[in-house]
C-alpha cells in the first residue's frame, strides 16, 4: 500500500478551464469559494477567450478569500490539453476538476474528501449531479440516470472488478471527480484520442480504487454552447446506426483503446491487477476488428464468430445485437 503525507487539513486544488465563459463563470467561482471545505486554490487556464472571461475572474479574485490563479494560454489547446495544463499547475493534496458553467452544492468538496480521507487505497471519488438548464432550472433526471449507473454497477465500480465496467464505458464525469495529486504524474500525458475525464478515471481504476458519493452535489448545466455535456452525450447515443456505427466511429474507438492498452502496458507495474490489462487488450482488439470488417466485408464471418466465441460482444457491446449489426453492415 502506498503512503501519503498526513496533513492537519486536506488541501484541495480546483483545476478549472475557461473559454468564452464570461456569462457563466462568476456563479461557478462563487459556489467554489463558498464550499464548507474551502479549497487552497482555484487554478484557471483560459484557452484564448475572446470575451470578458479574464475581467470577470480578476474582479472576483480581488475579493476572494480563496487564492485564484489565472493563466491565459499562448495558443488554443483544446479542452483535454487545457485541463492537463491546469492540473499540472495545482499544488494541493487533492485535485478537483471544474467546468466553468456549473454550480457546486456547498458540501461537494467536503463530502468527496471525507470518503477518501484515511483510505490510502482509494485514488479518486466522484458524486452524482443534477442536470439543469442554462438558467439552473432542474431537469427531471440525474447524471447517473443518463449513465445508467445502477446500484449494482455502483458496487462493481467500488470493487476489485471496476475495470470490468470501465472498459465498457466511462461513468465518472470530470465535474464530479476528486483525485489524489500523487497519481497525476502517472496519468500523463492524456491520449489525444481521449477526453481527459475518461482517461483519468480509466487509469485510476486500473491503478487503484474509487469510492462513490451517492448524492447529487453538482448542478450540471446544459446549454447549446457546451463542448461536452450530459445531454450532448445522450444525443450522440441516439444517433442513427448509420452514423453511430460507421467506419469513422470505429476508427476513433480503435485508436482510443489502442492508446489505452499501450499506455497501461508500460505502466503495468502500477496496476492493482495486471490481469485487467487483458480486458483493455480485448476491447482494443474488438474495436480494431469491427473497423476491419467495415473496411473489408469479406472478413465479417470470421471476425464476428471469433469475437462471439470469445464473449467480447457480450462484455463490451450489446451481445448478439451488435454481432448481427456487424454481419449486415453496409455504408
Secondary structure layout:
Elements: E1 12-18, H1 25-33, E2 41-46, H2 53-61, E3 67-72, H3 79-88, E4 94-98, E5 103-104, H4 108-116, E6 122-132, E7 138-142, H5 143-146, H6 151-157, H7 162-166, E8 177-180, H8 184-187, H9 196-207, E9 209-221, H10 230-237, H11 241-244, H12 247-266, H13 276-295, H14 300-310, H15 312-316, H16 320-328
Parallel strand pairs: 1-2, 1-4, 2-3, 6-9
Antiparallel strand pairs: 4-8, 5-9, 6-7, 6-8
Please tag this protein with its features.
331 residues, alpha/beta, Spore Coat Polysaccharide Biosynthesis Protein SpsA, Chain A, nine-stranded mixed sheet, 16 helices, 18% strand
Description:
The chain has helices at 25-33, 53-61, 79-88, 108-116, 143-146, 151-157, 162-166, 184-187, 196-207, 230-237, 241-244, 247-266, 276-295, 300-310, 312-316, 320-328, and strands at residues 12-18, 41-46, 67-72, 94-98, 103-104, 122-132, 138-142, 177-180, 209-221. 44% of the residues lie in helices and 18% in strands. The N and C termini lie far apart (51 Å). Helix 1 links the parallel strand 1 (12-18) and strand 2 (41-46). The protein has 16 helices and nine strands. It is of the alpha/beta class. Strands 1, 2, 3, 4, 5, 6, 7, 8 and 9 form a nine-stranded mixed sheet that branches. It folds into two domains: 12-235, Spore Coat Polysaccharide Biosynthesis Protein SpsA, Chain A (Alpha-Beta Complex); 239-328.
Amino acid at each position: 500500500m502506498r503512503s501519503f503525507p498526513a496533513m492537519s487539513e486536506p488541501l484541495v486544488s480546483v483545476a478549472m478551464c475557461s473559454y468564452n465563459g464570461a456569462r457563466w463563470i462568476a456563479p461557478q467561482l462563487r459556489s467554489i469559494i463558498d464550499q464548507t471545505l474551502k479549497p487552497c486554490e482555484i487554478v484557471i487556464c483560459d484557452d484564448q477567450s475572446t470575451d470578458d472571461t479574464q475581467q470577470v475572474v480578476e474582479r472576483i479574485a480581488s475579493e476572494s478569500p480563496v487564492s485564484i490563479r489565472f493563466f491565459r494560454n499562448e495558443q488554443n489547446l483544446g479542452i483535454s490539453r487545457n485541463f492537463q495544463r491546469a492540473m499540472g499547475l495545482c499544488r494541493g493534496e487533492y485535485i478537483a476538476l471544474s467546468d466553468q458553467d456549473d454550480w457546486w452544492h456547498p458540501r461537494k468538496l467536503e463530502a468527496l474528501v471525507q470518503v477518501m480521507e484515511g483510505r490510502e487505497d482509494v485514488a479518486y471519488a466522484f458524486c452524482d449531479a443534477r442536470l439543469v438548464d442554462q438558467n439552473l432550472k432542474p431537469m427531471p433526471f440525474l447524471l447517473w440516470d443518463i449513465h445508467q449507473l445502477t446500484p449494482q454497477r455502483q458496487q462493481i465500480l467500488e470493487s476489485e472488478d471496476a475495470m470490468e465496467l470501465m472498459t465498457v464505458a466511462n461513468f465518472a464525469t470530470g465535474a464530479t471527480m476528486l483525485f489524489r495529486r500523487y497519481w497525476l504524474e502517472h496519468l500523463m500525458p492524456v491520449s489525444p484520442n481521449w477526453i481527459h475525464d475518461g482517461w483519468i478515471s480509466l487509469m485510476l481504476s486500473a491503478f487503484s480504487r474509487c469510492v462513490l458519493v451517492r448524492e447529487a452535489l453538482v448542478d450540471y448545466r446544459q446549454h447549446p454552447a457546451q463542448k461536452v455535456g450530459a445531454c450532448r452525450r445522450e444525443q450522440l447515443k441516439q444517433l442513427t446506426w448509420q452514423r453511430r456505427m460507421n467506419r469513422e466511429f470505429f476508427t476513433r474507438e480503435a485508436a482510443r483503446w489502442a492508446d489505452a492498452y499501450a499506455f497501461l502496458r508500460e505502466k503495468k507495474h502500477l496496476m492493482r491487477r495486471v490481469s485487467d490489462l487483458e480486458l483493455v487488450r480485448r476491447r482494443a482488439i474488438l474495436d480494431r476488428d469491427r473497423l476491419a470488417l467495415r473496411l473489408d466485408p469479406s472478413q465479417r464471418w470470421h471476425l464476428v464468430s471469433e469475437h462471439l466465441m470469445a464473449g467480447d460482444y457480450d462484455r463490451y457491446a450489446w451481445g448478439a445485437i451488435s454481432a448481427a449489426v456487424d454481419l449486415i453492415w453496409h455504408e
